[in-house]
């Protein structure tokens, strides 16, 4: 049981890295990776929201959509749950933990349209994970997201100082760099 | 500066073609451009969602209160994504299985959301329809172009419908790197660079 979960954790963080291998969440990846500060802020916000969103959507799927035979409404139900959750988390943090809010606040509204969040919630359902596996995967995927984002931000800060050809500046060279980074994660393939 | 209706449509095909000029909707661009069939399947699905969500949002633009507009946009988009999901499951099941998780993810694709916020909530129905159609077709073209390049180099063949057709001769050594994840990123990066060179005035 425990080793299963450890393997799942490892594979979610490294082998099936959500950003570089499964291609989810690329818009915030390119948008927030220009500075290390914004990258870490985004990474923390995604971990925080995704653990909550994973648990709630899993409960919605098995206790609301399943019994009432409404599975075809899954996409709509999940996105509404996530949008409401993000709004709620934002208000909650603002009132009760202002220090955390100043750190994460500006990233929270962006998370609703981060496809990594909805993507992981759907993966949890499609893979038929039980409760513990679901919790591990909802935690491990965003950790992998954060890892890749922070690594990439580190590389990108250096690229800003380099002299890149004009047409390739910014996004184009960013994508090529992401490709190189993805290649390093590719090396984990086949470990489990 | 008012644009004519034709310009509203054609801007999506070159001047603002996503994902090259408007860097939006990257996730499906990277994930499903491994075969041409997947690429245009996805493109058509996005075009449908984009056009109809633009129409609906533009029709309701005076009713939706500005404070809850984001949620309202998401609901409108999610409705059409559900429609696409069910239709594809019924009629093109093998494509539906191949695109998998990326179909529900059209909801959080930045293109419909971005157009709803930037265009449909400000202009009339006719303009919004043309804008949605134009950008959708542009997106389909861009995806197909990227997929053609990746698939031909990676496998030496091209999948237009169900079965791959060999394009390059048998002596061609497949370059598998391009269908894998790193190849997708690098290929899109180079494509963006090339588009920047071409678009330079």
Helix content of chain A: over 70%
Q: How many strands in all of chain A?
A: 0
Largest interface: A-B, 47 and 43 residues
What is the H/E order of chain B? HHHHHHHEEH
Order of helices and strands of chain A: HHHHHHHHH
Helix percentage of chain B: 55-70%
Spatial ordering of strands, largest sheet of chain B: 1-2
* Strand residue percentage of chain B: under 5%
Outline of chain A = globular
Largest sheet data of chain B? 2 strands, antiparallel
What is the alpha-carbon Rg of chain B in Å?
A: 18 Å
Tally of separate helices of chain B:
8
Strand coverage percent of chain A = under 5%
Count of separate structural domains of chain B: 1
As an assembly, this protein is heterodimer
Sheet/helix structural class of chain B: mainly alpha
Parts with pLDDT < 50 across at least 5 consecutive residues of chain B: none
Structural class of chain A: mainly alpha
Largest sheet of chain A: none
How far apart, in Å, are the first and last alpha carbons of chain B? 21 Å
């Amino acid at each position: 049981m425990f080793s299963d979960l450890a393997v799942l954790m490892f594979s979610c963080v490294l082998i099936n890295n959500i950003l570089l291998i499964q291609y989810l969440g690329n818009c915030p990846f390119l948008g927030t990776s220009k500075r290390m500060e914004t990258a870490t802020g985004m990474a923390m916000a995604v971990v925080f929201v995704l653990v909550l969103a994973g648990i709630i959507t899993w409960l919605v799927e098995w206790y609301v959509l399943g019994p009432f035979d409404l599975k075809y409404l899954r996409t709509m139900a999940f996105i509404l749950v996530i949008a409401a959750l993000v709004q709620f988390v934002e208000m909650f943090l603002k009132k009760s933990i202002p220090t955390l809010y100043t750190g994460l606040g500006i990233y929270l509204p962006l998370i609703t349209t981060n496809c990594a969040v909805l993507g992981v919630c759907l993966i949890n359902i499609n893979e038929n994970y039980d409760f513990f596996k679901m919790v591990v995967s909802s935690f491990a995927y965003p950790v992998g997201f954060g890892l890749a984002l922070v690594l990439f931000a580190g590389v990108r800060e250096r690229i800003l100082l380099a002299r890149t050809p004009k047409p390739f500046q910014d996004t184009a060279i960013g994508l090529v760099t992401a490709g190189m980074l993805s290649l390093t994660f590719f090396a984990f393939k086949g470990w489990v | 500066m008012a644009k004519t209706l034709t310009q509203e449509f054609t801007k999506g095909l070159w001047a603002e073609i996503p994902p090259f000029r408007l860097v939006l909707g990257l996730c499906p661009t990277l994930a499903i451009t491994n075969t041409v069939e997947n690429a245009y399947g996805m493109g058509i699905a996005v075009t449908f969602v984009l056009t109809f969500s633009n129409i609906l949002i533009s029709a309701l633009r005076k009713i939706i209160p500005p404070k809850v507009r984001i949620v309202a946009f998401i609901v409108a988009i999610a409705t059409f994504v559900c429609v696409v999901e069910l239709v594809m499951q019924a009629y093109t099941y093998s494509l539906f299985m191949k695109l998998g998780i990326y179909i529900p993810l059209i909801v959080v694709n930045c293109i419909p959301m971005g157009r709803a916020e930037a265009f449909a909530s400000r202009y009339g129905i006719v303009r919004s329809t043309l804008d949605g159609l134009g950008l959708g077709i542009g997106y389909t073209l861009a995806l197909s172009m990227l997929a053609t390049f990746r698939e031909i180099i990676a496998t030496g063949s091209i999948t237009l419908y169900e079965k791959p057709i060999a394009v390059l001769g048998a002596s061609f050594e497949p370059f598998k790197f391009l269908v894998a994840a790193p190849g997708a990123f690098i290929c899109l990066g180079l494509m963006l660079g090339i588009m920047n060179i071409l678009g330079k005035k």
